[in-house]
Amino acid sequence: MKKALYGMFASLLMMGSAVAQIEPTLDPEKSSDPVFFAFNGTRSTDIIGLRLNIWGDCDSLTGIDIGLHGDTTNMYGFQFNILKSGARDQAAAFQLALFNEANELSGLQLGLWNATTSTTGVQIGLVNVAGSTKGVQIGLINRTDAMHGYQIGLVNVIRSSSVPFCPILNVYY
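Now predict its structure.
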């Protein structure tokens, strides 16, 4: 039990250092300055600050995203949406929604369904799916192709492991 607690603590520290290394960048070829407050937003807009949305989409968001359905290309900060929080490219973020999605996540996803291509951090939900994971997956069903960490749940699948399925706890380093 002590090793599991130490592992969780180490994973959270690793997640924090990974988030600190990613710095938001703005596209220098854009003609407009970043927006500090937006309602919904457009795909060509960079937002630094707060976005309130019903069905929002923007290029880069640094700050807080609150609403019903929020998508961005890059997300740095907090995404709190009822239906979906999504980042098409990078997310150094805390995502909270029924469905969370990111290509590369450094942070935490909390929802019913969490999906990433690459995770450095923690996924907590009923279903957690990732291409590669460095950290922890906690849920009813956890699946990843490659793992450096552990899974806690009823169904735990690490496809690259010599023991690809193990209920309750699955660990691979």
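The CA atoms of residues 127 and 133 lie 14 Å apart.
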